[in-house]
Records
---
Amino acid sequence: MKRGTTKRRMRGTKESMSDGGMTVMRCFLWSLLLCSLSSRAQGFIYTCGGTLKGRNGTIESPGFPYGYPNGANCTWVIVGEEGSRIQLMFLSFAIEEEYDFLSLYDGHPHPTNFRTRITGFQVPPPVTSTGNVFSLRLTSDFAVSAHGFKLNYEELHSTSCGNPGVPPKALLSGAGRFAVGDSVQYSCVPGYVLDGHATLTCITNAGNTAVWDFPAPICRGMDH
Ligand SMILES: *[C@@H]1O[C@H](CO)[C@@H](O)[C@H](O)[C@H]1NC(C)=O
Ligand SMILES: *[C@@H]1O[C@H](CO)[C@@H](O)[C@H](O)[C@H]1NC(C)=O
């Protein structure tokens, strides 16, 4: 009987949330060991996330920074105003490499909107959606977690390029509204040299979208 219900629970529907709650209750009634064993056997899924609206905000993985749960399937859908784009700025990122993932969907979380999958221990550069909806999904396996992620999101208007980000060992000046016509300057901390353009200017491209004229440069160690 139990085996037969496993697949349904794995799908992570609303039903699985209440089933999950019952599993947790049973765990308290039995023992912690039995709990983890039965959770694994039943494909326990921890669901979280939600729909976010508003000009800006913060998203943290559950339990951040003390580690996200195993068997997580959390989906956040950020919905901006019509005509805006959504920018994600990562503040912290640590996800068990190649086992747990943060997937980004340029639109609603549907396979056709899949954009990229992030894993590992490096803070990713800022990323901007093409439309007014951006979705994130955290999925973790049944062993080992890491401290998770924290990011700020912001709605960008058509005249804003958004923060171009600060690569490792780089410094950014000339910050402001990052609007069309604005420029920013990069430099590197001592011992590092800049590869790429030191000055980026926010321009309007052929598609009438505000974009930086060049990608952010990188700072390279002098002896490499
Ligand atoms: C996560 O949940 C979504 C729906 O809420 C589902 O479509 C998807 O298959 C689930 N992913 C995993 C790995 O269970
Ligand atoms: C976020 O939005 C609020 C108002 O909606 C604004 O006061 C605040 O400055 C914004 N924060 C950032 C970081 O843009």
---
Amino acid sequence: MTDPQIPNPAGATPATPIEPVWTAVGNASEWPANGGRLARVGARRIGVYHHADAWYALKDVCPHAGVSLVQGPVHDGQVMCIGHGWTFSLTSGEVVRGPQGVKVGTYPVRVREGVVEVAV
Ligand code: FES
């Protein structure tokens, strides 16, 4: 369907929205009340976190030296790398404590009928 607010030039094909591919990574009941678990989706290592009644998913490789972030403590919406203490926002993946501008990738995550799913 074409957005009535945006003119469609003659002959232009409207863009088809790309649907995310959701992958089940486990049952929500298996997660700690406040922490993360490692999920593998293909070759990707993804840390999936349950914190303060919300869900987050971050690439599970610290950009400093490659340590698994999901092993670190979670508090105040952040996870701390056990390697050297850099801390990342669970929401944005941006570093909160560490060099400015550093970031890890994030993924959409949802829970449907008790199953945690990540879109990659
Ligand atoms: S490996 Fe993560 S802060 Fe150094």
---
Amino acid sequence: MKYALLNGKIVEPNKNIKKAICPLCGEIVISKCGKIKIFHWAHKSKQNCDPWQENETEWHRNWKNNFPKECQEVIMFDENTGEKHIADVKTKTDIILEFQHSYINTNEQCSREKFYKNVIWIVDANKSYNNFIKNKNDITLKLFSKEKYFYTMYPLLLFPQKWLDSRSYVIFDFGIDDLYCIFPQKVNFKTIGMCMSKHEFIEKIQKQKYEKIFNQENIEQSLNNLNNESLSVNKYMANTSVKQIETELETIEQLNLFKI
Ligand SMILES: [Zn+2]
């Protein structure tokens, strides 16, 4: 945790403040200001009251720091069940961002998506960067509109598999400026997504509603175009060089290897 309460005020961990109160459970938290992990608050009981919180890294903090203090570590409460959790970021437009660095099991992923509703996952995909760059080409990742939408028949070659079946938007942060967002809906077995610079995303997310972030109306239009495109396979084949088709076949072989 980056924030705790001291005399009713939000405080960050520092060497001069030893103890504060956890804003979620009201228990005492200790400031941890060592050399290995980033400065954080830890429960005295060593048990984190929110099982959904993961150990924070520099990557988490860098992301959180793009947003105003009041939008970071926001307590979310379900009035019906009494369940409460700390959302990494809640924008002023009511979008929840969850930054995920380590493995998360599917049950927890679904529970979090259900609890937060308008959630966008931001996944630390640094480790998959080399694989992504190696396999990314015009065949595996096809841009299909000026809006920087893309589709892929080979998502397994490009993105960490774990996240491909999510029912929310998933953004892969490969540690480069461009973020790659995968949409929850698939079209003709194609995975659809959008490429956006980090700067643009951070600006947009703070001003627009959930449905508007990826220009939903434009997606519909572009998806229609895409459907039309997939109907004209013959046209595609006629315009595709032998070299391209060979590469595509190789890619399919690779994909089969992945499935074994
Ligand atoms: Zn707590």
